[in-house]
């Protein structure tokens, strides 16, 4: 059960309207790594969690906090759009760089949402549930969560650098700090799960069913051997089960693929000499001659 508290988790008070920046801020609301994504990702991971109760509780705690972040950013966007007249777009166009990249304010903020936030990214692309990951394997999911928080924090930091509004920066500084905590949180949970089940996901697949001869081999598929200098090419593997090997010139291990002819009902390209059903040999030969520009 959820209930709404009227106060925001943290202040979202810009010093002045800025419709062009409101367009930028849409990225951390409805973009691939925005707050809507992590909100839905964590909530569904929590709803579907079949593991130890502490994990479900932790995931839903942070998922619920992300709802608050969505509200904060939406509120900030709405205030940045306060009193934004159509001429703001023309004013932004005076700066060639701004015009080239942004084209002024998002017209949908005026036309569609009535000076409010929308569930879209900074170029107006609608938020998509395919951004989210909830696989049922907590170690796999927590690694995806760490990536989401890393990318999200990076984007908020970049947005911080693009405004001098103290109120906007104040809210962003809060989000940056919370993203730091969330990264630390997921790293702690990942470490705990790795200690319990190992580093490779999933840990439940039988080892004897893997092709062990390639399980720890780094294959060099480029000119030179620069990649051999990395931690991934020599020494003990990260799961502690074997030594990494560097395969300088990997050889093909499979067959030359030759597919069966397509059945007649597909009407694909016939193999030379194979007549389409119902076509007489003379007609087929004549057709070939016409197509090839002369007799065979």
Automatic annotation (TrEMBL):
<dbReference type="InterPro" id="IPR007760">
    <property type="entry name" value="Mn_catalase"/>
</dbReference>
<dbReference type="InterPro" id="IPR039377">
    <property type="entry name" value="Mn_catalase_dom"/>
</dbReference>
<feature type="binding site">
    <location>
        <position position="224"/>
    </location>
    <ligand>
        <name>Ca(2+)</name>
    </ligand>
</feature>
<feature type="binding site">
    <location>
        <position position="35"/>
    </location>
    <ligand>
        <name>Mn(2+) 1</name>
    </ligand>
</feature>
<feature type="compositionally biased region" description="Polar residues">
    <location>
        <begin position="285"/>
        <end position="296"/>
    </location>
</feature>
<feature type="binding site">
    <location>
        <position position="220"/>
    </location>
    <ligand>
        <name>Ca(2+)</name>
    </ligand>
</feature>
<dbReference type="InterPro" id="IPR027407">
    <property type="entry name" value="Mn_catalase_C"/>
</dbReference>
<feature type="binding site">
    <location>
        <position position="182"/>
    </location>
    <ligand>
        <name>Mn(2+) 1</name>
    </ligand>
</feature>
<keyword id="KW-0464">Manganese</keyword>
<dbReference type="GO" id="GO:0046872">
    <property type="term" value="F:metal ion binding"/>
</dbReference>
<protein>
    <submittedName>
        <fullName>Mn-containing catalase</fullName>
    </submittedName>
</protein>
<dbReference type="InterPro" id="IPR012347">
    <property type="entry name" value="Ferritin-like"/>
</dbReference>
<comment type="similarity">
    <text>Belongs to the manganese catalase family.</text>
</comment>
<dbReference type="Pfam" id="PF05067">
    <property type="entry name" value="Mn_catalase"/>
</dbReference>
<feature type="binding site">
    <location>
        <position position="222"/>
    </location>
    <ligand>
        <name>Ca(2+)</name>
    </ligand>
</feature>
<feature type="binding site">
    <location>
        <position position="57"/>
    </location>
    <ligand>
        <name>Ca(2+)</name>
    </ligand>
</feature>
<feature type="binding site">
    <location>
        <position position="149"/>
    </location>
    <ligand>
        <name>Mn(2+) 1</name>
    </ligand>
</feature>
<feature type="binding site">
    <location>
        <position position="69"/>
    </location>
    <ligand>
        <name>Mn(2+) 1</name>
    </ligand>
</feature>
<feature type="binding site">
    <location>
        <position position="61"/>
    </location>
    <ligand>
        <name>Ca(2+)</name>
    </ligand>
</feature>
<feature type="region of interest" description="Disordered">
    <location>
        <begin position="254"/>
        <end position="296"/>
    </location>
</feature>
<feature type="binding site">
    <location>
        <position position="66"/>
    </location>
    <ligand>
        <name>Mn(2+) 2</name>
    </ligand>
</feature>
<keyword id="KW-0479">Metal-binding</keyword>
<keyword id="KW-0106">Calcium</keyword>
<dbReference type="InterPro" id="IPR009078">
    <property type="entry name" value="Ferritin-like_SF"/>
</dbReference>
């Amino acid at each position: 059960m959820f209930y709404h508290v009227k106060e925001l988790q943290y202040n979202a008070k810009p010093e002045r309207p800025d419709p062009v920046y409101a367009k930028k801020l849409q990225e951390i609301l409805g973009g691939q790594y925005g707050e809507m994504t992590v909100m839905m990702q964590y909530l569904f991971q929590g709803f579907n969690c079949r593991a130890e109760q502490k994990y479900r509780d932790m995931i839903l705690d942070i998922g619920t906090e992300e709802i608050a972040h969505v509200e904060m950013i939406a509120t900030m966007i709405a205030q940045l759009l306060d009193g934004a007249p159509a001429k703001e777009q023309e004013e932004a166009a005076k700066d060639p760089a701004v015009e080239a990249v942004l084209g002024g304010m998002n017209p949908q903020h005026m036309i569609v949402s009535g000076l409010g936030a929308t569930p879209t990214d900074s170029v107006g692309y609608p938020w998509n549930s395919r951004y989210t990951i909830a696989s049922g394997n907590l170690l796999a999911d927590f690694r995806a969560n760490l990536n989401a928080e890393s990318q999200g924090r990076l984007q908020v930091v970049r947005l911080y650098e693009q405004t001098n509004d103290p109120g906007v920066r104040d809210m962003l500084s809060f989000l940056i700090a919370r993203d730091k905590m969330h990264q630390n949180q997921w790293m702690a949970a990942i470490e705990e799960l790795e200690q319990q089940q190992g580093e490779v996901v999933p840990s439940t697949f039988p080892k004897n069913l893997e092709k062990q001869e390639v399980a720890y081999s780094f294959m060099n598929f480029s000119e030179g051997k620069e990649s051999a200098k990395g931690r991934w090419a020599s020494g003990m593997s990260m799961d502690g089960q074997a030594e990494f090997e560097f395969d300088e010139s990997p050889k093909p291990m499979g067959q030359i693929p030759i597919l069966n002819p397509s059945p007649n009902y597909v009407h694909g390209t016939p193999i030379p000499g194979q007549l389409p059903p119902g076509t007489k040999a003379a007609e087929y030969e004549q057709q070939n001659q016409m197509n090839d520009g002369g007799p065979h």
